[in-house]
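Section 5.1 Outputs to date
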Amino acid sequence: MPERLHRFGIHVIPSDPRDRHDNPEVRPLVNGTDFIERDYGGAVCGDALSWLLPDGPFFVGQTPHQVEMAAWCGCACRTLDVTMRREGDTVVWHWDEPEADSPFSSEIRFDARQYDAEVERATKDRSWEWPSAAVARILGGILRSHTDWLDGWTCEVGEVWSPPGVLDEIRLSFRNYVPQPDGVWRSAGCFGTVRPVTDENPTAQAERLAQEIMAGDPRQANGMRSDTPDAPLDDWLGTPRHFGPSSDKWHGTA
């Protein structure tokens, strides 16, 4: 008998952007059912702000990778780790039960075309995103795409984010590098800034901010501050609050 292919879906539980403790949560669906809620009650899934990005954790290329699909606590000491791989026209998810010493494992297969189309749809659907978060996402994409500019000033974009509960500003951080005599580049600290945002079109705001920051040396841009022992950058900017299992903890498993 031909193997059964399941239908993949992505649902986002919107958040209240005025609540600094609330984040939009991604919930994967199998045949229209939230299988995390059904089979792993009490677990939370990832933050849509960091999961629903181009080439994010749901994207399955030629190299298998593993993601923390769900977690039961903030320290992620108990997680549901799903390995995703592509087999021809099929996308395969495989995971072992998160309980210690459990002999059980699960596997789900999806039609690759339907799966890819759903990932593309969900990535483009930003109906859950508040304006300042949209500005941060678009600005980060613009800055990271200008690799020649970043290389010319020996820096890279760290984080561009809109803190939950803060609707009228975004925050940016950069990492600075300096060459050593042996040719190795060494980190030389961080710098960053806070920028106000309004209800204006997010793309227009992001493009204007990008032009301003990229007009010259980003370290000298208006409002930039450097990280110093007496005035740590994190004390001023804070750090992004990543909700749920981390989208960063995915790695090749080939």
